[in-house]
Design a protein that fits this description.
The protein has helices at 19-27, 47-55, 72-82, 101-111; strands at 6-12, 34-41, 61-66, 87-90. The two termini are 17 Å apart. It is an alpha/beta fold and 116 residues long. Helices cover 34% and strands 22% of the residues.
C-alpha cells in the first residue's frame, strides 16, 4: 500500500447543505495520508463557518478564502499551488466518495505506473 500524500481539492460556494458530507467522505477514507484543501469562493450562506468548525477537529484540512466569487477554476488553481501531495484529487462540495476510493485509485495507479 502506498504512503504517498494525496491533496484533495474542493472549491466551496454556498454549499452549506452538502459540504459536510463531502468532507466526511474524505475523513472516512480507508487511505489516511491525505490533506484536504477547501477553497471558500465567497460563500454567503454559512459554508465558511461550517468548514472552519469541521477543520478545528481535523488537522489535515486547510481552508483558503476568496473574498469574492471567482469561480471553481480559479479556486482549484489556487489550491493546486498550495498542494503538497504527490497526487491531486478533485472533489466537488456537493459530491461524496466511497470510503475506499483513494486506496483503490492510488493502488491501481501505482501498480500500473500511471501518473494520472
Amino acid at each position: 500500500m502506498s504512503s504517498a500524500l494525496v491533496s484533495v481539492i474542493t472549491p466551496v460556494y454556498n454549499s452549506i447543505k452538502y459540504v459536510r458530507w463531502s468532507i466526511e467522505s474524505v475523513i472516512n477514507q480507508t487511505f489516511h495520508n491525505w490533506e484536504m484543501i477547501l477553497v471558500d469562493d465567497g460563500s454567503s450562506d454559512g459554508s465558511l463557518e461550517l468548514i472552519k468548525s469541521i477543520a478545528k477537529t481535523e488537522n489535515r484540512i486547510k481552508i483558503i478564502r476568496n473574498r469574492e466569487n471567482r469561480g471553481s477554476g480559479v479556486s482549484r488553481n489556487k489550491a493546486i499551488k498550495l498542494a503538497n501531495g504527490k497526487y491531486i484529487a478533485f472533489l466537488d462540495s456537493d459530491d461524496t466518495w466511497h470510503r475506499d476510493k483513494l486506496i483503490i485509485q492510488i493502488d491501481l495507479m501505482e501498480k500500473n505506473k500511471w501518473s494520472f
